[in-house]
Each structure stands twice: as structure tokens, then as C-alpha cells.
Amino acid sequence: MPMGKEDTARRFYRDLMGMNEVPKPPELAKRGGCWFESGAVQIHLGVEKEFRPAMKAHPALRCNNYPALIAQLRRAGIEVNEASDIPGVRRCHIHDPFGNRIELIG
To answer: Which of 3, 45, 58, 105 is 20 to 30 Å from 85 at the Cα level?
Structure first.
């Protein structure tokens, strides 16, 4: 993530995606960034001086209430790109506020 954008990350991952913020260890907190978790999954966003979003590589997150999350994301203006290339799997791709690709699986 870009430097100084922690509040933007919190609005997306915590407030919109419903993840909990995890305190970073003090030594790592000095570097900036945010950590989030939901169940057994954690996402660690580190700060990069010359940030470039991950457009191809991405986490895939299985969602407990996929339809409700997708509806919430759309209401918030997040572009949801449904994918139908894996038979029997309901999934989509979104991008976080920094342009990082995220796959959501229903």
C-alpha cells in the first residue's frame, strides 16, 4: 500500500469488508501499514515507497455470506467482476482502494 494511506485501508478492509484490524508488533508498526483478519485468514498490508498494485497475483478469500458482501461492495461503488470460468464456483474479482486484486469466493 502507499505510504500514509492506513485510514483508507481501514475503511476498505475493516469497515467495508468486515475484517478486524490486528495490532502490528511495535517494531513493525514503525514502518506503517495495517494488518487485518477474518477467521483464520490474515492480510498484511505493508508500505512501499514506490508502490505498484498487485494486478495479477492476489489472495482468494472464501466468504461466509457472499451475496450480502457483493451487494455491500456494489452499494459502496466497488466494481465487482463476476467470473464464470470455473464450473460450480461462484466467484468474482474486486480491487482494493490501492488497485490490488482480490478474489472473493462464495
So the answer is: 45
